[in-house]
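anyone seen this seq b4? input:
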Amino acid sequence: MKVYAHVVTDQDSPHEDRYFGVSEDPEGTGYQEANDWINAHQEYRGGERYEYDRYEVEIQFKWDMIEKEFKACMRPGKDWDGIDTSDYLGALFFGDFKLEFIWNDVSGPYNNLFFWGAEYNKGQAYSYLEDGTPYEEIDPPFVIPKRRTFESFAKNIEKQVIDWLNGNTEYIEYALEITKPTKWYPDGQCNVTRDITRIA
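predicted toks r here
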């Protein structure tokens, strides 16, 4: 998905960009916030310290969810006779993130968001991949909408991701990383590329 990233660069620390939002509209979410921030913090030292820029970038959404998994996620109600088991129903990958969709016999559908390469406390990440790469779990999960088609379901989730990034701008730079689902499976045991059913 092509979006505009609204960024303020500190000329004293040019490698530390501050993201204010991403939007499909060049003057959408983040544009005014970035300019308001500059107006409140600008310093002049023979030149302006803070500079606004707008980049056309891509957040690449890659879905690993087949039709059978989508329908299982959309099924109504809960299985009250279930024994509290969970089934993996696919995932959405974007940048350094993986959003998994799960069906639980007791609680119904839910999702988990994981952040690849993150380790908030050294040696105490949420978990580690087979090659030792850490990853963290992020709350809150997204709302799972009831939709008749996978296409409309996927578009709804993708919009929720954009909204989430605009509410949590510290993650934007990581969402802009190249999306490589296989990096989540360094042992090579899971050939996820065969199930990539949508790229947006």
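Helices lie at 31-41, 67-74, 150-167, 172-175. Residues 61-199 form one domain. kinda curious what u guys think
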